Amino acid sequence: MQSKVEYSSSNIAKLEEHLSSSYSPVEIRPLGSYENFGFNGMVNTIGHVTLELFTAVGSYEIKPIAPMDATMFVIVMDHQIAINSKISDLRLGRGMATVYHHPVDVKLQDGSQQLSLIVPDNVLQSRLCHLLDGRAGRPLRFDNVALPANALKQFAAAVQSLPGSPIVQLAEGAPGQSSGLEDFIVDSLILNFPNNNSGFLSNAPQLSPRQVKRALEFIHSAPHRHISAVTLADVSGVSTRALQYAFKKATGRTISEYQTALRLEMAGKEILKSAHRSIEDIARSLGFSSPSNFSQVFKKTYGVSPTKFREMHF
């Protein structure tokens, strides 16, 4: 069933009450002064899966009090959002995607638009068992990473086409058909977004986790360096091609993409931590070729320039 949803209030407590009753208990904190806080968009229900396309009204932080028994796949359609967990802090700009479960908090920017799939945990585990031919597999845990939506092959494009799609409306109107579409969506999420069962779902040979771990440790020991796949393969004691394949399976990113993402994550933290340190100095210390190159790559990931990013947080 598809429905339009719109809610806004000058009283942040009213939004907190609304979200707590609709999902699970949360605390809401305003991030700046706005006339109203809320959201507008549409919701589709496909079996047990909920598809939401929302635009934030006002900037605010959502802090869950009690966990939801569900996992959320998110694509940022416009502006940016920040998702903080016990494992890492992710800032997603336009065109970035992630999966999260029990976040510490989620920060929405005024005008940010996100497309979300909310899937109950028991549905995910049931479909994983089906994909593994009846084997239970490990409790499903998606990698805590942000990926370009276009890196997820056709899955992200398919999800983005769902709001208002005649296929969804046909499935909702035909008894028993919504479950088939639901299974297809959930299966595609499990197969396309990196998780701790990706190796079991692939027929390709897997390297020992410790060999990928050696490469990761080497990268993290010198994040400012541009370390080639050949060097990392030598360190790990495997062939370059084998490491490249296993690395992508384990992290969801190529070796080069991972190194860039690591440097950008460190840069974002340093920009906020050292308010008086110049952007140029931060870029140089993390191995970026020039301030302009750093600014371009940073904006592609975070949605804003490094200077604007600093201004937004001070």
TrEMBL record:
PANTHER family: HTH-TYPE TRANSCRIPTIONAL ACTIVATOR RHAS-RELATED. It comes from Rhizobium oryzicola. InterPro entries: AraC-bd_2, AraC_XylS_family_regulators, Homeodomain-like_sf, HTH_AraC, Tscrpt_reg_AraC-type_HTH. It comes from the Bacteria. SUPFAM superfamilies: Homeodomain-like (SSF46689). Signal peptide: none annotated. It holds the Pfam family AraC_binding_2. Keywords: DNA-binding, Transcription, Transcription regulation. Residues 213-312 form the HTH araC/xylS-type domain. This is AraC family transcriptional regulator.
